[in-house]
Write a structure and sequence with these properties.
Blueprint lengths: L2 E5 L6 H14 L4 E6 L4 H10 L4 E3 L6 H12 L4 E9 L13 E3 L4 E3 L11 H8 L3 E6 L7 H10 L6 E9 L2 H11 L6 E6 L8 E2 L2 E2 L8 H15 L2 H8 L17 E6 L4 E3 L2 H9 L2 E6 L13 E4 L1 E2 L5 H6 L1 H12 L4 E4 L1 H5 L3 E3 L5 E3 L7 E17 L11 E12 L8 E5 L5 E5 L7 E4 L2 E2 L6 H16 L1
Parallel strand pairs: 1-4, 1-7, 2-3, 2-4, 7-8, 8-9, 12-14, 12-15, 15-17, 17-24, 18-20
Antiparallel strand pairs: 5-6, 10-11, 13-16, 18-19, 20-21, 20-22, 21-25, 22-23
Length: 473
């Protein structure tokens, strides 16, 4: 069956509840596959730390509705239990249509577009409908008593296609508080599947782009143990376990694997760790051997590689350490200028710049492949993008449209005279300008994160260029 952990809004504790469930299941030696709705990188890191299995992103904007269904079917079959963590509030999504006009449907009580569709595309509710999964609704009760019933009833009734299996009451203050909440919910006959009291000793630190990644938290295992202790007692396991049980589904066709023939250096350390697991899987299936390495700690780039992949992350946090590793900076620049293909997304783009100027205004030398600097600032750039290639480049042909996601607090001092993409917001015609660096021609450096799941031709093109580079050596 599996379930989706949803929130009535952002910040209600979805991730804490999800990790508590996962930690308690793993303590029971249960194999569990987790999924995350949306383009998030950091929450899946926590999932994987607990389960020992890569978390899979379910995002119909970056991929497609069909891919979401196939991805869930493929990976949920591999374990006894599976669960999905939602994004924001249950119905918080976007319009799937460009220039759609909102209207109020009195018979449904919903905001809809001009075709009568609910504007919750890519929301947790959308994924619940696609996968036909029940929802466990997390409610922040810290400032609620009787009003909890109105919230629960609204979510239970607003869309009859969504099945609310029960609620988890989070941040409950006392036995008296819990009694008031239960009394209010009783007329709804909605199961209470968990009760989490206010916790002072369970906090996950965050910073300018969300939670601090797992690799930077030395006390994480102790925190997970506390979550497992909490999970053993706070959930109604008798009713939850049957919901979590993976349901047999028709498996999607297996993707062919090709013999490994191309070695790709994938930067993965505390500075660079934003990767969709499906992207890495596709490279391997297409014949790449992935060589993971650290621009922070290694003395040189890996030997005998034919391509490089720099994901996003937090190079600004580790800018001094990156700058001090001059042998690696020089090695990366030399390899790229000699023609080695390189993908650099967001944080990777910043690493290929001449320098990073951090939040304190300090300047740190980077590789200098791109004649521009990345400057940290307070403004957050966030959202889905439709990006149309302005020229043939390392990954796509001119005129190709791809869907991606931006999430950063830096900007570049100079833009390329030959940018990769013209970008616009996904859900409207608002032009977001030209973006990305495709010069040298063997570089694809962009703030736009891409999920290749529905676009197999992107990694195929990259590996083709890597093979061409190998032949030219």
């Amino acid at each position: 069956m599996s379930i989706i952990i949803a929130g009535e809004r952002s910040g209600v504790g979805k991730t804490t509840v999800t990790l508590t469930l996962l930690a308690s299941l793993r303590r029971r030696d249960r194999l569990v596959q987790s999924f995350k709705v949306g383009p998030d990188y950091i929450d899946p890191m926590f999932h994987q730390h607990v389960t020992g299995r890569p978390c899979r992103n379910l995002d119909p904007v970056l991929t497609s509705e069909t891919y979401v269904q196939q991805c869930f079917a493929r990976h949920s079959q591999l374990t006894e239990y599976s669960l999905v963590e939602g994004v924001m509030g249950l119905f918080d999504g976007i319009s799937p249509l460009v220039n759609s006009h909102l209207s109020f449907a009195e018979d449904k009580g919903l905001m809809t577009n001009d075709k009568g569709q609910i504007n919750d595309f890519a929301s947790t509710a959308h994924i619940a409908r696609l996968l036909d999964l029940p929802v466990v609704l997390v409610i922040d009760c810290s400032r609620l008593s009787g009003s909890v019933a109105a919230i629960a009833h609204g979510y239970q009734s607003i869309d009859p296609r969504i099945k609310i299996a029960g609620v988890v009451l989070n941040r409950v203050g006392s036995d008296r508080h819990l009694s008031l909440l239960k009394d209010a919910l009783k007329p709804l006959e909605l199961p209470i599947l968990g009760v989490l009291r206010r916790q002072d000793n369970i906090t996950i630190p965050d910073r300018h782009l969300g939670l601090v990644p797992t690799a930077e938290l030395p006390e994480l295992n102790a925190l997970i143990d506390r979550l497992a202790d909490l999970g053993d007692t706070c959930f109604d396991w008798q009713n939850l376990l049957p919901l979590l049980k993976s349901q047999p589904l028709p498996p999607p066709p297996n993707l062919p694997h090709f013999p490994s023939s191309i070695r790709i250096a994938v930067a993965r350390d505390r500075a660079f760790n934003f990767y969709y697991q499906d992207n890495l899987d596709l490279l391997q299936q297409l014949g790449a051997e992935l060589v993971f390495w650290s621009p922070l700690k290694d003395a040189a780039i890996p030997k005998d590689v034919q391509g490089m992949y720099f994901g996003g992350g937090f190079p600004e946090v580790f800018a001094q350490q990156l700058a001090e590793n001059t042998s690696v900076r020089d090695g990366v620049k030399t390899a790229i200028l000699e023609g080695m293909p390189a993908i650099a997304e967001c944080g990777g783009l910043m690493y290929l710049c001449e320098q990073i100027i951090d939040f304190e205004g300090k300047s740190w030398a980077m590789t200098g492949v791109l004649p521009t600097s990345a400057v940290m600032g307070g403004r957050l750039t966030l959202g889905y993008r439709r990006a149309v290639a302005l020229q043939d480049n390392l990954l796509v042909k001119a005129g190709t449209a791809v869907h991606g996601h931006e999430f950063h607090r830096s900007h570049l001092t100079l833009t390329s005279t030959k940018p990769l993409f013209e970008t616009s917001r996904y859900d409207c015609d608002e032009n977001m300008g030209c973006e990305g660096w495709g010069f040298p021609a063997n570089v694809h450096a962009s703030y736009v994160h891409l999920h290749w799941g529905e676009s197999r031709e992107i990694p195929e093109q990259f590996l083709k260029e890597c093979r061409t580079y190998t032949i030219s050596l």
